[in-house]
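ok so i was messing around last nite and threw this chain in just to see what happens. nothing serious, just curious
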Amino acid sequence: MLRLHKWKLLCLALAANIALVGSLISGDIKPYDQWNWLDIVGEGGLAFLALVWLLLILHSRPTGRVTQLLSVGLGAIFIAGFQDWLDEFIHFPDNALWDHWLESGFMPVGLILLTWGIFHWHKEQLLLAEQLRKRERLFREHRGLDFTTTLSGARYLREQLNHSLAEQRATETSLALLLIDVDHFSHTNRHYGHQQGDHLLQCLSELILLNIRRNDLLCRYAGDRFALVLPNTGRSIAEKIAAEIANAVQHFAYKPFNHDESLFHSVSIGIALTNNDQPVADTACSLIERATVALLHQKEKRAKEPSITLPYVA
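result:
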């Protein structure tokens, strides 16, 4: 990860060297008996820790606005602390104002940038936590996870469907199940390899997670097929969410590794809705079966007329 930030590290090393050389040119080395060891340890420790924090951040984060703010802020704090530390060894003439600017100017600027970066990092963490809540749906058990997409599989889907159907019958609300199938997924596997196919599925799962609500549940049902459980949802909302997912996938440009071109995909979606008026209550298996029939019907229609995007509802 540090290789992504080599220019930041080079700039910091260059700034530290300029400060060192400038100090040696403009000042005189203090005699040993004038060294204050408490200040040397304290000020040197501040600069050292700022450098360690900076390296840890650069080693663990990709490039981006938050990383820029944190790294520039810590870099300024390091330079201010480093110059302050050099003061303990070098006596500067009274007219060497640049020394004071480095110490007193870089420190507050660095602290402001660091604080601003931490504020945006906090917002970033809240968004990640929100996404994790969607993925885990608060009480999710961590068994049966699919290693490719880190979503739960078909077994967990059936368990949660039975649980949600029991709640839906007790509260007389409605529930929708969407089966989402990636069109022509085998083409990606054949032409770019299974590793690319797995990465595409991972990207699409993240994309779908961004387009669903907090209490919705997304699972990888099988292969290139996802299942989405929408509690307390009627037909119009289910169709709206399905259309938003289809639109998001259609406009998502996937770039395979070591290839310059962008791949665009589409999905077929089948919807099954519960019906509180039917004599026999739905089970997880019956709802999945109806959603599968709806999906196959949708794929058959799209094979004849690819411009059809509205999902089929069973």
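not much to say yet. DSSP finds nine helices and seven strands in the chain.
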